[in-house]
Write a structure and sequence with these properties.
This is DUF4178 domain-containing protein. Pfam families: DUF4178. It comes from Labilibaculum antarcticum. There is one protein chain. This protein has about 180 residues and is mainly β. The protein has two domains: about 70 residues, SH3 type barrels (Roll), CATH 2.30.30; about 80 residues, no CATH class. The chain is about 5% helix and about 50% strand. The protein contains one helix and eleven strands, in the order E-E-E-E-E-H-E-E-E-E-E-E. The protein has an eight-stranded antiparallel barrel with strand order 2-3-4-5-10-9-8-7. The radius of gyration is 18 Å and the shape is globular. The two termini are about 25 Å apart.
Length: about 180
């Protein structure tokens, strides 16, 4: 690195006049659901066949949520909150541990969810710089396709769950970099 390189500014990886949700990174701030949110952590998922998705841990000062972003032919977004697996029913965790299979349907907060897909993949915590970790994910959706429940298996007997909803890109606005 030469003396003149010291004064060169690092160029951002996004168009500063048109920052999109796909440009989010740790420290970015944005508006969603009448509140300001800060990106606190960044995660990456490898689903195989060169298909990746992103997830961000976001906080508005009183609540922490997870914003998932999938880019395929179009951008799919969802906002979810961590929940206890036992909130999904008495038998769900027992069946997962004994049978290693998810139920075809489940009830969460009086809403019926149908198993939509099973996705084995790898997870990477970009914020911590950890190694990729293998896991499996089962996505459930309600009849409208708007509400989502996800169960993830990390170890033989370690399960996590989240519940949330799909959102549109326009619901996230005023994105500012750190």
């Amino acid at each position: 690195m030469g003396f003149t390189d010291f004064f060169k500014r690092k160029q951002p990886k996004y168009d500063s006049t048109n920052i999109r949700v796909t440009d989010l990174d740790v420290g970015f701030v944005f508006e969603y659901d009448l509140s300001s949110w800060e990106v606190q952590a960044s995660y990456e998922y490898d689903w195989g066949d060169n298909y990746f998705s992103k997830e961000y841990k976001i906080n508005n000062g009183s609540k922490t949520l997870f914003l998932s972003i999938e880019e395929d032919d179009e951008i799919s977004l969802s906002v979810c909150d961590k929940i206890k697996v036992r909130e999904l029913g008495d038998n769900v965790l027992t069946d997962l541990m004994n049978l290693q299979k998810p139920p075809k349907t489940l009830i969460y907060k009086d809403k019926k969810y149908l198993l939509d897909q099973e996705s084995p993949g790898y997870f990477n915590d970009k914020t911590r710089g950890e190694d990729w970790v293998e896991f499996i994910s089962w996505d459930f959706v309600d009849e409208s396709g708007e509400f989502i429940v996800t169960i993830e298996q990390w170890e033989e007997k370690e399960f996590e769950a989240s519940a949330g909803k799909a959102i549109k890109e326009f619901e996230i606005s005023n994105i500012l970099p750190k």
